[in-house]
Amino acid sequence: MSAYRVVGHPLPQIDARERALGAAQFVSDLKLPRMLFGRVLRSPHPHARILRIDTSKAKALVGVKAVVTAEDTPKIPFGPRTEDWTILAGDKVRFVGDEVAAVAAVDEETAEEALELIQVEYEELPAVFDPLEAMRPEAPLIHDKPKNIVSEFHLTRGDVEEAFKESDFVHSASYFTSQVYQAYLEPMACVTDIDPTGKLTFYLATQIPSMTRLTYAKALNLPLEKIRVVVPYYGGAFGAKMETNLHLIAAILSQKTGRPVRMVNPRQEDFMAGNPRVPMYIDLRIGVKKDGTLMGKEVHVIGAAGGRAVYSMVIVATACYRVDSLYRFQNLKTKGLTVYTNTVPTSCFRGFGNAQMTFALESSMDMIAEAIGMDPAELRIRNGVRTGDVSIHGWKIGSSGLAECIDKATEASHWKEKRAEKRFPRGIGLACCNHVSGNRAFAREFDGGAGLVRIGREGKVLVYHGESDMGQGQKTVFAQIVAEELGVPLDWVEVAWVDTEVSPFGMGSFATRGTVFGGNGVKAAAAEARRQILELAAEMLEANPVDLEIKEGMIFVKGAPEKSLPFKRAAEEGLYRRGGAPIVGTGFWVPDTVLPDPVTKYGNISPAYPFACHIAEVEVDTETGQVNLLNYVAAHDVGRAINPQTTEGQIHGGVAQGIGWALMENMITEKGRILNPNFRDYVVPGPLDLPPIKSILVEPIDPNGPFGAKGIGEPALNPVPAAVANAIYHAIGVRITELPITPEKILKALKARKR
Amino acid sequence: MKHPLVLLVNEERYELEIRPNRTLLEVIREDLGLTGTKEGCGTGECGACTVLLDGEPINACLTLALQAHGRKVTTIEGLAKGGQLHPLQEAFIRYGAIQCGFCTPGMILTAKALLDKKPKPEEVEIREALVGNLCRCTGYQKIVEAIMSLVRAGGKPGP
Questions:
Q1: Chain B residues in contact with A685 (beta carbon < 8 A)
Q2: Range of the domain at B52
Q3: What are the tens digits of pLDDT across the range A215-253?
Q4: What's the topology of domain A448-589?
Q5: B125 near A CB under 8 A
Q6: Which of B78, B100, B115 is a domain's end point?
Q7: Residue A533's closest CA among A549, A513, A522?
């Protein structure tokens, strides 16, 4: 049972009712007066020069209000990290789906018809689709960068060669992680509006409202105050919904027409021009002593950025070094390359590179355990980082529940018994992961979280934050934290839409940072609002503010409960006394993190580090190669679960997505064209594809998290592919190192083993 | 050429004139303003646009509006009566079966059609019934638990 009134209790999301009623207005539901409908004309070629665009016929179509090309845009190179974006393609297109022109019309049908009337003349160019090929001397250059390399990551600590010499065993393996699609149910969408002064309002599905605003101001060559970003309900994101040209194209169309414009990606285009997971080639060598001590690790990663860089280079960097704080590595050598290809630009997907590397590392750990004759669980506990450790990269591990996760997961899954009694073709496999709760290396400008808590005349508490709830329950967690801090019932607390006009500058929802950063921010704001209302109440009760307490919406003197005042009464009276001013508490939280040195990458990047251990149990049909998942156990160190129900929901969803990645999902391409851009051919897990998922919450209470909480979003997915691959190996003795693990690969491996 | 169309949506009668190529989804969302019915793919693969046509769950994105002429359509907005949520809505809220909520209307309507026909399905029958409704947030576990809670409690929101 929770030690708190509101925090720590399993509660439904505070806005679940609106969603259950169908009353929640999502971005793609918004309709403004005189709103137009926008559509994008996309490149049919992976790499081509644009020779001529003729929009005259499209412009002449009745109902068409604007047709735009690169000529109508500021043509300023921009991008979240690099400057290789333009709003619409200028001289050439770089992937099938690249934005070439756009239309705004009175209805969607007219907009679609107009697209067909735009004539584009292309000169096709040689194209390259694989990052290994893209680095060859004869490869065509996509952005005039030598060898098409976007960026390199190098890191050395200690002496790996020496460490390998001292090792009893050096394990080498090569892996490939596939390109998968986030498959949020609401496609990317926005509504833009413009006022007579040229100020643009973006209603966006975005995880990073404040940062999006910065990027878009640059792209549109507008001062920051001319851009307002509002985030209504939106239907999932899982990393994908950051900056996207779709929003900027809508803005250009609004500027052209002076009218609101709604743009929603048709699902096929969302596959073609979303930002799927960065596919990676990973070579991994690990040296180990007979007793299981990890001596050194050498890794080489090559990731495909696609036709322009979004966040791929930071994702490759994360793949290169985040796992180094899972185990007590002493010697490291790392090289990571991010390479342009004529494919859809890749970017963030739950796990952010750490998921890719966790598949590689945790598969290798399984093989190492077998090679030295050690239980895979024991090998992990032996090397795992512990509370109080400072990892090889200077990460301060304020709490680690890794060993407890392993203990609880192995116990719940009957690991020991099932490992011992081998029942071909059944098997059980284990994988662990670490993660961050916020990443200073990603959020470079500053680190922190902020909130604003407004107590109105009626005593209602309205919370403003600058993060982004994509459905995970962030608003509910913030409301719980504020209700706890203020001592009011949860249903007095509402959480406002993020609106850059009023909300704090939040970095946003990525890097599993929402609960810790946004949570600490609104907690600080609530503490300030509490201080203000107690000051007013103290006057009314003729008491000292420090002697007052708030419980269940009543303010009273400690030890003298008869001297009391309703919270709502204090809010009202306080407002009268202050000329109508509501109580507004703002607060912020700045963690003790450091921007890592650009060369050494040394420094504590996150205030809190979550850990997990997953165990999968499978049965493999050796005739068909089909993998049947029997059971799944996911134990997570979440610091403290502010809301065990939503935390568990995150775990279920993360495991489901991980299973999709491990076994089912794959973007199949041919010459840069995605062959399965729909849910019939790109199969995500359905209700019959998933095993019972048992989630276990491990709560070591982190010193930095709000009420001790850490993040959960990404670690819920990270260990899944390795846990499944390890279970398959245990079941039938074949090791698959390329995702997805398809029946074809299993049958091929079984056949190869027989020979 | 526009065609007359009569729809009985959530027990309310609508008389419209529409072009014959328009889908039921478009008419529900744009003409009637009932945006609880979502569009997730437009090709009948995700189930977000599920509505009940004479009690049967269908993909409104694949149904021409004229096919529903004179027939009864139930959308998510039609489930709550007099401010009282439908037991399925209650259960979805209570069990944490809703995350982003974009699939929720379709999920609830598909579940309603199942329970109307078969009030005591097995868990696997629930999962089979939901196979055309994708959810990317929840892994379905809490959705199935929510529906099972009604089955156990005889159609009322269970504990």
A1: 139
A2: 3-78
A3: 999 999 999 999 999 999 999 999 999 999 999 999 999
A4: Aldehyde Oxidoreductase; domain 4 (3.30.365)
A5: no
A6: B78
A7: A549
DSSP E strands in A590-734: the ranges are 611-620, 627-637, 669-670, 673-674, 693-698
Quick one: B7 and B71 in the same domain? yes
In angstroms, the CA A31 to CA A37 distance is 10
- Structural domain ending residue among the three candidates B24, B48, B78: B78
Q: What is the tally of structural domains in chain B?
A: 2
Of A267, A648, A687, the CB nearest to B140: A687
Query: Is residue B148 less than 8 Å (CB to CB) from chain A?
Result: no
- What type of residue sits at position A510? F
Residues of B with CB below 8 A from A475's CB? none
Is 60 exceeded by the pLDDT of residue A450?
yes
Pairwise CA distance, residues A537 & A10, whole Å: 32
> What pLDDT, on the 0 to 100 scale, is given for residue A1?
63
Asked if residue B123 and residue B70 are part of one domain, the reply reads no
The answer on B60 and B30 residing in a single domain is yes
Which superfamily is assigned to A31-125+184-237+241-273 in CATH?
Aldehyde oxidase/xanthine dehydrogenase, a/b hammerhead (3.90.1170.50)
Domains A31-125+184-237+241-273 and A280-379+388-440+598-754 share a fold: no
The ipTM value here is 0.97
Q: Which of B41, B93, B98 sits opposite A267 (nearest CB)?
A: B41
Residue B115 vs residues B58, B81, B98, B127: alpha-carbon distances, Å: 16, 18, 19, 13
The CATH number fitting domain A280-379+388-440+598-754, selected from 3.20.20.70, 3.30.365.10, 3.30.70.580, 3.40.50.1820: 3.30.365.10
- Long-range pairs, A146-149, Cβ under 8 A, ≥24: A147/A339, A148/A339, A148/A340, A148/A341, A149/A337, A149/A338, A149/A339, A149/A340
Domain boundaries, chain A: 31-125+184-237+241-273, 280-379+388-440+598-754, 448-589
- Whole-Å CA distances, B155 to A326, A406, B113, B119, B124: 47, 40, 13, 7, 18
CA distance A310 to A85: 9
Query: Encoding tokens for residue A603?
Result: 């420094």
The answer to whether A660 and A180 have CB atoms below 8 angstroms apart is yes
How many C-beta neighbours within 10 Å does residue A303 have? 30
Whether A443 shows a pLDDT value over 80: the answer reads no
Could you report the per-residue pLDDT of A281-338, keeping only the tens digit for each? 999 999 999 999 999 999 999 999 999 999 999 999 999 999 999 999 999 999 999 9
For residue B101, the chain A residue with the least C-alpha distance is A19
Report the pLDDT averaged over residues A39-48.
98
Q: What is the pLDDT of residue A445?
A: 83
